[in-house]
Amino acid sequence: MQTLVRVPFFKDVTDLDFDRFDRRVFWRRYDEGEVVIDYEDETSDVYFIIAGEVRILIRTQAGKEVILAEMRAGQFFGELSAIDSTKRSANVTALTRAELCIMPAAVFREVIFASPTVCDRVLHLLTARVRELNARLTEHSIFDLKHRLYSELLRMAGPRPGRPGERSVTPPPFHHVLAARIGCRREQVTRELSAMAQEGLLEKTRGALVLSKPHVLEARLAEALREDH
To answer: Which residues 6+ apart lie within 8 Å of 76 measured at CB?
Structure first.
């Protein structure tokens, strides 16, 4: 039988009786491109990602879609509707073949109340998401397109193996994806990336988008914040 012990989020949780909940969750595989949940859905389940990757989109009143996040194995989504019982405010689509553990809202709430460890993890995660959303809102209010792109690339990038001081985004993101993440057109992203490459700030390899001088991007962002004040 499938068990919550397999779910990365519950790793090292010792104050939860997993047997009590294992039969109350269910498991499902999704194909690449398959919609997991959609805008205005009235479901309230919580989805724990066991394998694969999903993309979360929000839609503006004008119908424009903005990429809110991409999540991988070990993360979960859907908790807001489980907590407040409102309709879904985002679309979640599988980017790759994915396996998810689906937990009904009532079970999710029971798990939180039953385990201080799980409750603490959920609170920390929600706090981190609120802080990230606040940071993005600030960026859209203060930064121009170029600086929003700098910030998003830094947020997406990780250390480049074997090249201290450099960072990379793996795999390299499509230009329309970057545009949807920062709220602009694909052509604008293409133009700004070309300008960065000409300055020696960015390099595209077969498997990654390399930030050659991330410290320069960070300094420019800091300067833009100072100028705003």
So the answer is: 9, 46, 47, 48, 49
Q: With the CA atoms of 129, 131, 132 and 135 taken in that order, what torsion angle do they form, in degrees rounded to the nearest 10?
A: 160
Q: Specify the 3-state DSSP secondary structure of 148.
A: helix
Q: Find where tokens 């009235």 sit.
A: 42
Instruction: State how far the alpha carbon of 25 is from the alpha carbons of 73, 105, 211, in Å.
Output: 17, 10, 42
Tens digit of pLDDT for each residue in 37-79?
998 888 999 999 999 999 998 877 767 778 888 899 989 999 9
Which ranges of the chain have pLDDT less than 70? Answer: 1, 62, 228-229
Residue 164, φ and ψ in degrees, nearest 5: -55, 140
Show Cβ contacts of residue 134 under 8 Å, excluding neighbours closer than 6 positions: none
